[in-house]
Design goal:
Layout lengths: L2 E3 L6 E3 L3 E2 L12 H13 L4 E3 L8 H10 L7 E6 L1 E3 L15 E3 L5 H13 L4 E6 L8 H13 L3 E7 L3 H10 L4 E5 L11 H8 L2 E5 L23 H4 L8 H18 L3 H10 L5 E3 L6 H10 L6 H10 L12 H5 L4
Parallel strand pairs: 3-4, 4-5, 5-8, 8-9, 9-10, 10-11, 11-12
Antiparallel strand pairs: 1-2, 6-7
């Protein structure tokens, strides 16, 4: 696995990481043993950047990651996030539902408690990169980051990150404590970071960690109308780009990716990932999977070199305004770029 530097002064880590949200039952029922085997294969290939959150499966993803890295902590660059709290009678088996008994909290009082809970679930003494998962309008970013900075001082956390924040929020946060990374959705289907956020990151020396580099699976070329109906995949009911009125138009756009893949001699997924990697050495994509074969495919994508003509073909074939539907529903879109 080729390496990239996390921000201006961070460590050298795998150019492509492993997103671990699917270790919970978000894309259908997950198998813990399969997820653990996937982590082991990733580490064997040098894919050492593991990304999870206290939200995913109400902490279950963190617990699975913790089991997977036991005895291999030195091989891992470990990232997790905080945001979600659950009441004593919460329905953790239905953790994505608004009726699950959960709420969001980024108050400075909650930050150290959230961190301790994540450390326990992960079975580690320190988190390499600790993110605020979303900014809440009612909590000043200076207050949250100030509490996060105390975790660095206490040796609980090594680097701080933010997720889906505006450029202005990033600058305010960075003035309190250096921010190592901003995590945001970025792919051929989601180009919003190019408006201003990417430039702000580069001005401050902050890495951009790109989640959903496959456009939530659409850019892999494997998604069909029928494939989402199996196994309780949340995208079939909660992702606007997968609705009946949008999916056919979006799948048609993938033809461009498929054509470039045929020319290069790789998979559409590898082309989509290679495109993200080509946008700058300060960008670290974290495609999610719980299957070892896709870890191998993602690792091989770091060797794919797209020509300037092929990159232009992708951009021309998938204009920013051509993708149908927002990347989140109405409530989700209100929570980004704050």
């Amino acid at each position: 696995m080729k390496q990239r530097i996390l921000g201006a002064n961070g460590p050298s880590i795998g150019a492509v990481g492993l997103g671990c949200m699917s270790f919970s039952d978000v894309y259908g029922v997950a198998d813990d043993d399969e997820s653990i085997a996937t982590v082991h294969r990733a580490l064997d290939l040098g894919m050492n950047h593991l990304d999870t959150s206290d939200m995913y499966g109400a902490g279950h993803s963190e617990e699975v990651v913790g089991r997977a890295i036991k005895g291999r902590r030195d091989d891992v660059f470990l990232a997790t996030k905080f945001l979600t709290r659950y009441g004593p009678n919460a329905n953790r088996s239905n953790w994505m539902s608004p009726d699950s008994g959960r709420w969001q909290d980024t108050s400075p009082e909650w930050v150290p408690q959230a961190c301790e809970a994540s450390l326990t679930r992960l079975g580690v003494d320190v988190i390499d990169l600790y993110y605020m998962h979303r900014k809440l309008p009612e909590v000043e970013i200076e207050d949250t980051v100030g509490a996060m900075a105390k975790l660095v001082e206490a040796g609980k956390v090594r680097h701080l990150g933010l997720s889906e924040v505006s450029p202005a929020t990033l600058r305010r946060a960075h003035a309190v404590h250096p921010i190592a990374a901003v995590q945001v959705e970025y792919s051929l289907f989601s180009r919003d970071p190019e408006d201003e956020l990417l430039d702000t990151c580069r001005d401050l020396g902050v890495a951009l960690v790109a989640y959903s580099p496959y456009g939530r699976g659409l850019l892999t070329g494997t998604v069909t109308r029928d494939s989402l109906r199996e196994g309780g995949d949340f995208r079939s009911v909660a992702a606007p780009r997968y609705t009946a009125e949008n999916i056919d138009r979006n799948l048609k756009l993938v033809d461009t990716v498929r054509a470039v893949a045929d020319e290069v001699g790789c998979t559409p997924a590898q082309v989509a990932l290679a495109w993200v990697l080509a946008q700058g050495d300060d960008i670290l994509p974290i495609p999610g999977t719980r299957r070892a074969k896709y870890v191998e495919e993602n690792t091989a994508a770091t060797e794919v070199k797209l020509t300037a003509r092929q990159i232009a073909t992708l951009i021309d074939g998938i204009p920013r305004d051509a993708v149908a539907g927002d990347r989140y529903g109405e409530a989700g879109m209100r929570a980004v770029n704050l």
